[in-house]
Design brief:
Layout lengths: L11 H15 L14 H25 L8 H11 L8 E3 L4 E3 L9 E3 L2 E6 L4 E6 L2
Helix pairs in contact: 1-2, 2-3
Length: 134
């Protein structure tokens, strides 16, 4: 048969699915500063899905960058990523489609640890999520 199967990057299809969810959401909520305080179950679902992917990919990236350490939480990932990738916290993402410029890791300079929890501020919608440390 003339069909050739080529594998795509491991997380690419899931990323595309999350992106499509975001595009669909933008049909109802314009991504402008006036709407950054908007909240819904759909937005929460999208944030949690994206955060979960960031967690998985960050862990794997950390294993590549420093195979001597085995981080088990976002605090461990932060330690390795900031140390191994120059200006990691300053990384800028430009989303031309929505006219947005984000620095999703900039608050790692300001992350507050309280007991067994880490507070992460998500810049795009100014929401605070508490994530249990593993």
């Amino acid at each position: 048969m003339g069909i050739l199967e080529i594998s795509s990057p491991k997380y690419w299809n899931y990323f595309l699915a999350l992106e499509m969810d975001l595009v669909n959401l933008s049909r109802y909520i314009e991504f402008t500063e006036d709407n950054f305080d908007t909240y819904s179950v759909e937005i929460a679902k999208l944030i949690l899905s994206a955060a979960s992917e960031v967690d998985v990919i960050s862990k794997q990236l950390c294993e590549i960058l420093d195979d001597n350490k085995k981080p088990k939480s976002i605090g461990g990932y932060k330690e390795i990523l900031v140390a191994k990738i120059k200006n990691f916290a300053e990384t800028k993402i430009v989303i031309d489609r929505y006219g947005l410029e984000l620095k999703p890791w900039i608050n790692w300079k300001k992350t507050i640890q309280i007991g067994g929890r880490i507070i992460i501020k998500l810049n795009i919608i100014d929401t605070i999520i508490l994530k249990e440390r593993i």
